[in-house]
């Protein structure tokens, strides 16, 4: 499944979990699926980030990782 499809499914799962008419079993099943989709999306994102880092390194000849969050 693609990154975009995983995100779409995660949004569907989140909407479903907001409903009041789910049984505990249904909620747990959706939650488990959501965790699996999150792991898949995270792996795809990490792979894409690695590809971008390689392209930047090739284009600039120098590779630098910066922490833009801190």
What is the count of DSSP helices, taking H or I runs of 4+ residues?
2
| Shape label | rod-shaped
The total beta strand count reads 0
Determine the structural class based on helices, strands and strand pairing: mainly alpha
Uncertain runs are none
Multimerization status: single chain
Characterise the protein shown here:
- The protein has helices spanning 3-17, 24-60.
- The protein is mainly α.
Set out the fold topology:
Elements: H1 3-17, H2 24-60
Helix pairs in contact: 1-2
Outline of this structure?
The chain has 70 residues and is an all-alpha fold. 74% of the residues lie in helices and 0% in strands.
What are the salient characteristics of this protein?
mainly alpha, 70 residues, 74% helix, 0% strand
């Amino acid at each position: 499944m693609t990154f975009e499809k995983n995100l779409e499914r995660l949004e569907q799962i989140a909407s479903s979990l907001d409903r009041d008419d789910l049984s505990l079993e249904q909620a747990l099943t959706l939650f488990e699926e959501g965790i699996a989709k999150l792991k898949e999306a995270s792996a795809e994102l990490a792979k894409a980030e690695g590809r971008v880092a390689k392209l930047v390194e090739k284009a600039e000849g120098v590779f630098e990782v910066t922490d833009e969050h801190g």
